[in-house]
Amino acid sequence: MESINGVSFEDWGAACGNLAAGMSEEEVIKVLGLEMPVWQQTNEAWSNKLGDLMAEDMNNATIYSGFFTNPKVGKFAGVASNVPDLASLLVQVPDNDAYQKIFMHQSIAAQHGVDGVTVLEEYGFNLQTWSQVSMHYMKWYNEYMQHTGTEQDKIRFDETSATRNKWENHWKAFYADQASDLGGDIDF
User: Fold this and answer.
1) CA-to-CA separations, 135 to 103, 141, 153, 157, 182, in angstroms, rounded
2) Distance (Å, rounded) from C-alpha 71 to C-alpha 19?
3) pLDDT tens string 131-160
4) What does pTM read for this prediction?
5) 31-47 burial, b if ≥16 CB within 10 A, otherwise e?
């Protein structure tokens, strides 16, 4: 794959992941060996190119996501960063139940006008660290759900659905009193 202003797709994805984890733009451009205007143009160009790459092959979204969630690759491989390793994040979210609790909290809160990032911060996550956890549980789910058409598949589907439904119902009840009627005072 080509590079833009000498920045490969891998290095751009890692730069985005490091930025999301709290690395300053100044540190990012130093690692990439760029001036700020060149970085800004490069970032915009890669952002635009990502859509084209995904249109060509959706696997490019997965590749980018891998660079974003594990940004210690390419030019950033040996650079100290604020990105915790997955094992330390899984201490906070050790199983699907804990994952669904946060996932559904964020989802239902958003339906009530609460910023999803704010919800993640309540649990000690930012977009980058939550992306790492989400990628882990998406992989876990795909491995856990064998899709072989057996009774075991049905049991696992029912189990994971029950966990999701438990937390969905919990957060719906939690936010039930916080519903707002933004148009209730408008007469037509």
Assistant:
1) 12, 10, 21, 19, 35
2) 9
3) 889 988 988 998 898 778 889 989 999 999
4) 0.64
5) bbebeeebbeebbeebe
